[in-house]
Amino acid sequence: AFSSHGDLAPDLLRPIAAYFERCEFPAGHVLWRQGDAPDGLYIVEAGVLRASYRFSEGARSVEESMVPGTVAGELSALSLLPRNASVVVERPATLWKLSTENLERLERENPDMGRAFLRLVLKGVFAVILTFWPVLMARVCVAAKIDYDILLSALASRQ
């Protein structure tokens, strides 16, 4: 999951492994539903997860596949905000779970390692944002144009 971040030595990450739990799930298992409280973050070792994001009632959901090496659920786990997507195991999966309790324990017992792990996860989030930024902005611009057109139409009807 973090192989692209060459500035981190494997020895730094090895002690963090003690805070993770290996989990196996069959296809069809629901890991969490949008709006659920976070229980932790997961690193996909094997299998495929499918995330479905629903941004507003009536809008089509956005689907994302998470393959080995992906970190799943990190935004909710780190912010302690409700899950922003529903996630289902698409193909039998082996995951490494860092529970919210173990994340707090890591931060308490080894703050330097906790900060290093947090920076590592945030680098991955930032990389994903940069990858999908053009698509996200295109959707935002389309929505903004629709809102702008509605506003112009409403203003024109007032004359």
From TrEMBL:
CDD domains xref list: CAP_ED (cd00038)
Residue intervals passing through the bilayer: 116-136
SMART domains in UniProt: cNMP
Protein origin, superkingdom: Eukaryota
InterPro entries: cAMP-dep_PK_reg_su-like, cNMP-bd_dom, cNMP-bd_dom_sf, RmlC-like_jellyroll
Domain Cyclic nucleotide-binding: 7-124
Pfam families xrefs: cNMP_binding (PF00027)
Keywords: Membrane, Transmembrane, Transmembrane helix
GO cellular component: cAMP-dependent protein kinase complex; cytosol
GO molecular function: cAMP binding; cAMP-dependent protein kinase inhibitor activity; protein kinase A catalytic subunit binding
Name of the protein described by the UniProt record: Cyclic nucleotide-binding domain-containing protein
Organism: Sphagnurus paluster
